[in-house]
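# nightly structure sweep
# worker-07 picked up a monomer target from the shared queue
# config: single-sequence mode, recycle default, output format = structure tokens
# input follows
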Amino acid sequence: MEKVDIIGGGIAGLALAGILDPGRFEVTIYEQRPELPTVGTTLAMWPEAQEALSELGILGAVRSRGAMIRTGALRSPSGEPMLSMEGEGLLGVSRPALLERLDAAVPGSVRRVVGRVEQLPGGAGLTVGADGVNSVVRSNLRGRHSAARPTPFLAVRGVIPGTPHPQDIGEYWARGQIFGLAPAGGGSNWYASFRSDLGPDKVDVADALEVTRSRYANHSRAVREVLAAATPENSLAQRIWICPPLTRYSQGNMVLLGDAAHAMTPNLGRGACEALIDAVTLGKLLNRLPKEKALAAYGRKRVMRTQLLRFASSLMGRVALAQSAQPVRDALVKQVGNRLSRARERAETSK
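# output follows
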């Protein structure tokens, strides 16, 4: 039995604990929270992430708690569609519901330790950093130069009762501001991002909501109604943090997963997906290969892909939150939307 210490009991940590062979590994999860969160925004599960959930045996259970997202649009602040989009079976599920199902998939043989990890426990054959953007494992692995840094942007988000109208679903782009709205398992998931001096560490949710309502006061009726229904009890607010690029995720007996390896801005909606895929990929490799070969294969499969997504997400964020050249940006988006619409019409006509 090889001893595996997983630092962090979030999405990546629970998924890895759920897929590691309990007959081969003695697993301990270290998590600072005494219980799972009850408030959290909706996460978009792309097809690859749904495959990872299937590997864990919980895809059906997660689908029963979520909602399929098939349509949406990039919109102006008034709600006018600039670019319509059709999804390929995107699954939206709240973070608390996803964590609940992942937690239930962890074998009973896994040991749980509650408390903040300031210094890594010793004696493990493998120490896994699944401890987020401010990872203690990453600082031990890559040094101080790998420390996370705050962006200028605040993320305010939540879930309110009631399903959004299809004509309101999508992402609203303004000058230096984003607002998103999507269905969320019987409710409406919303998020807003903009430059703010609040934080960077602890952000008061009530203060953040007040600022958000002020910043989006001239947006569409749908946006204003969502923000009017948001409360500190069903909302979250935090500074967006990122970590610098890494060229490798493992060294010796330490390895990184999820945000500890590739924390990215939320603009592509890929953070939670890639954390799941990291965990399932690593777990399957460890189950069938010696540790050194498994870690090498994990690096080949995951480093380049996730670093490219980290870069692409940052680039999308700069475009969406542009403070200048907004008219040019919106004109280009509308032009792309018009061309795609004409292409779809031609395809329908030719059938």
